[in-house]
Amino acid sequence: MGVTVSTGITTSVRLDKAEAENERMRQVPMETLLSGLLERLDDEDLAEVCDTLSWKFQDNGTEMLDTVRSWLDGDDIRRIEAALTINDGFLFRTREESETAFTKLVARLPQFRKRTEAILQAWDARCRPKAVRDVVEGTWPISTAAQIYGVSEDRLRRWVEESPE
User: GO: which molecular function terms (predicted)?
Assistant: First the structure.
């Protein structure tokens, strides 16, 4: 069942329930929405809600991740802990972007070293086997595979050289 929204002229647009809800949610600033959720939920529940919300937003959660990434630049420990839980800590498009942000974070707040190292290790564990296989099997040239898997060409070359294949 849809909702009819008048455009103020002589036309109207039909929105399904998800689109109508998306419109309503967009009226609340993302920072306000996430702050409200952060007050009410533990990190794991917040991560689960954010994962669900990312599929509901037209931008697939881009604005939400932008907001969460900004928490890493602050000093609010609770927000940083939550940010590192959302999307399993995969907040950036590339490993190098993650590494840069995490290096800055750890320089300010060393207690996050183990957590950020674990996120980067998880990135490698997730991407390395597929990226190496794609290069070794000739599925993609190294430059394309590096872009697909969000790693530098140099890192991918090292992975390929280190692989037993």
Answer: sequence-specific DNA binding
